[in-house]
Amino acid sequence: MNPELLEVLACPRCRGEVLENEQAQELVCGACAVAYEIRDGIPVMLPDAARSLATESGA
């Protein structure tokens, strides 16, 4: 993903920083513990479409 675009993207839930997980093709918000899918190079930044990371780690 374009580094300049990544700098301006923010989590739609908390407005926090999102980090790219290139291997999983998603953007991750550590504050909310959610991941947003990157589909065909386009991040799907919809709160209802986010995948919770908390349930995966057992938290």
TrEMBL record:
Any one GO CC term of the record: cytosol
SUPFAM superfamilies per the UniProt record, alphabetical: Trm112p-like
Superkingdom: Bacteria
Coiled-coil stretches noted in the UniProt entry, renumbered to this chain: none
Family assignment from sequence similarity: Belongs to the UPF0434 family.
HAMAP family given in the database record: UPF0434
Name of the protein in question: UPF0434 protein FIM25_08645
Species assigned in the record: Desulfobotulus mexicanus
